[in-house]
Write a sequence for this structure.
């Protein structure tokens, strides 16, 4: 009888093991808006009259690898990090970007230490981000400070306060105290 139990256990264990593993990457629209958030990246912003500057930079970056070990077997990565800043949130913003193993849906969460935050959702095949429970618009073209030299396309505006552009991330925002609007001046991705 113990041989039957052992055989049954081995059979069940081998049935659940992965035979083929697929990588579940972030949807293209998510990669376009959020791939620049990597270790060593930073953004420099100035307010309208350039009297204030905000340096936004990444700290505590983690690229977490995950694997589902039961059929259908998939692997994926989710990233988490903090954005240090002075005027965006007066301190630290906790960020998580990923799909949690769902190959069809992804999200980006920017959680403010003062409460609230930014949440974007995106699906495989989408061409724009969606914003649950808040106003979300796509502007194209969008000129930073109204200057044609700084024209961006497919800019997603979250709650009329945060402007995100593909390949740059956050390009404009209203300060946490709502006294200033800050505009991207420099962006460096490592």
């Amino acid at each position: 009888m113990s041989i039957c139990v052992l055989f049954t256990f081995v059979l069940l264990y081998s049935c659940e093991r992965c035979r083929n593993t697929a990588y579940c990457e972030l949807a293209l629209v998510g990669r376009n808006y959020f791939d620049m958030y990597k270790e060593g990246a930073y953004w420099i912003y100035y307010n309208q009259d350039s009297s204030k500057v905000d340096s936004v930079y990444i700290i505590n970056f983690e690229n977490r690898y995950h694997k589902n070990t039961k059929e259908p077997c998939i692997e994926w990565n989710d990233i988490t990090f903090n954005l240090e800043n002075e005027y965006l949130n007066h301190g630290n913003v906790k960020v998580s970007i990923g799909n949690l193993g769902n190959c069809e849906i992804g999200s980006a969460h920017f959680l403010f230490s003062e409460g609230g935050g930014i949440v974007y959702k995106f699906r495989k095949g989408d061409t724009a981000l969606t914003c649950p429970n808040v106003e979300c618009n796509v502007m194209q073209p969008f000129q930073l400070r109204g200057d044609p030299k700084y024209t961006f396309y497919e800019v997603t505006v979250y709650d009329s306060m945060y402007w995100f552009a593909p390949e740059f991330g956050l390009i404009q925002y209203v300060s946490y105290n709502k006294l200033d609007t800050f505009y991207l001046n420099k962006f460096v991705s490592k």
Observations:
- The helical segments are 2-16, 28-34.
- Residues 8-14 have pLDDT under 50 and may be disordered.
